[in-house]
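Case study 2.
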Amino acid sequence: MTVLNEARHLTHCVEHVLSQDYPGQLELVIALGPSTDGTDRVAAKLSGDPRVRTVPNPTGATPAGLNAAVAAAHHDVIARVDGHAMLPVDYVRTAVDVLRHTGADNVGGIMAAEGVTPFERAVARAMASRLGVGSAPFHTGGDAGPADTVYLGVFHRSALQRIGGYDESFLRAQDWELNYRIRRTGGLVYFTPRLRVAYRPRGNVRALARQYRDYGRWRRVVMREHPGSVQLRYLAPPAAVLAVAAGAVAGAVGWRRGLVVPVSYAAANVVGSALVGRDLPPDVRRQLPLVVAVMHASWGYGFLTSPRSLRPDGAESQQLPAFQAAQSSTTSS
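Prediction:
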């Protein structure tokens, strides 16, 4: 688990990890970033449990923290956990069972977004719909089977060692990038709907826009680094942004036919949102078109404006030497 300013949620999250009904040994390694909200004090108290240990993550970057935690872990199965994710009690047991029966290198399930406020609930519904995020199974669900990527992930340590762990130059999209390397080296990434992890979505427009802008920016970085990962569905949001913007400009300069594109998009969004949210309360349903538009526009804008300085072409992968040297133990989780 990597944490940075997670004092509010950390205790509850750790309780969910330690309450797992997995029959084997279990430990939790928390990589501590440079928090300013008292997270370290909370973690120190939690590490009074002998199953909990902490390691430093001075940069606060997620992939660096993950590599440090994996290097410090003792067991052969590694489960990634976020500091604001609430694992169901059977999560580890189910994941280990699927790993063993499928021969997969990485197993994951559904990011089950659960909102509290009307805006959060609208975001949660958009994140679980094809209208909002396309066909990614870890968002929308589906049948068990091979997948491009999954939420969080439960890995065989040997798979992480084979590919050198998380690439620390990917400050975002490190899961996409890592799972691509697993698949490229012949490994299996497996999705199962039996694994569901509660996720709290962003609570306002600004935070949601920033999140999806970063998703788009870093997905472009993955595509630059790994051209073989390009899929048409990733090009839909930037294409829509360009088309809507071009139509709006054309309409503004007097070519009214250009307005057909933005008007058509708006109409499709409203109708689609009405269908996706038909069972939601009115105060949630009214916010869905805004949420969907923000997600589409921000992802597309981020993709189109992704600067090469995020990760310059030809930059070398960065993994911790300690991770490469880490040795597997004989236990199973």
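The CA atoms of residues 71 and 323 lie 5 Å apart.
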